[in-house]
Amino acid sequence: MKIRDLMTKQVASVRATDSTAVAARLMWDCDCGAVPVLDGDGRVVAMITDRDICMASLMRDRAPSAVSVSEAMSRNLQSCGPDDAVSTAEKMMRTYQIRRIPIVDRDRRPVGMLSLADIVRATDRKKGRATKEVAPAEIAGTLADICATPTREPSRATSRAS
């Protein structure tokens, strides 16, 4: 199964110069917990999560409106392409303990987002062209790996699955 079959195609995003309050409002309005951060050319350069916003605000003792996205974002980006296998994204989620991955084109422009929830929903569809290419036991294993207490800081080098 390809990522394009499961990904959310509408992608909300922010710029590094935006305040984290802008990012938080966008997450609230779009009912999501993470958004890609774009550079001036519209390329994905980082991710920011609701947790990043909370921790940056707390650690700086400043309101989210006074903290820029660039101060809070995770620059260690993991991404996939729309034609990559879902199993590639799942392995990345396990390795880096992440629940969401931006899906980018060859120019690193956002074309979608894939979340663990998207994968779970694909295993539990009862109607239509639903498949069970990702076994429920695999999903349980992935979730267990994501939620495990890290024993070391994983290397979060920028990568793009081929």
Q: Judging from the principal axes of the Cα atoms, what is the shape?
A: globular
Strand content: 15-25%
- Cα(first) to Cα(last) distance is 15 Å
On the 0 to 100 scale, the average pLDDT is 85
Q: State the oligomer.
A: single chain
Largest sheet, described in full? 3 strands, mixed
Radius of gyration: 16 Å
Number of strands: 7
Low-confidence stretches: 126-130, 154-162
- Remind me, CATH topology? CBS-domain
Number of helices: 6
CATH class: Alpha Beta
Provide the domain count.
1
Named at the architecture level, the CATH assignment is: Roll
Which key terms come to mind for this protein?
162 residues, CBS-domain, three-stranded mixed β-sheet, two-stranded parallel sheet, globular, disordered C terminus
Structure, explained:
The radius of gyration is 16 Å and the shape is globular. The protein has six helices and seven strands; from the N terminus they run βαββααβαββααβ. The protein has one domain (3-151): CBS-domain, CATH 3.10.580.10. The longest helix is centred in the last third of the chain and has 12 residues, at 136-147. It has helices spanning 20-30, 50-60, 69-72, 86-96, 116-123, 136-147; strands at residues 14-15, 34-38, 44-49, 78-79, 100-104, 110-115, 159-160. Strand 2 and strand 3 form a beta hairpin. The chain is of the alpha/beta class. Helix 4 runs parallel beside helix 6. The model is unreliable at 126-130 and 154-162 (pLDDT under 50). The protein has a three-stranded mixed β-sheet. A two-stranded parallel sheet has the order 4-7. The chain is 35% helix and 17% strand. It starts with 13 loop residues before the first strand and ends with a strand.
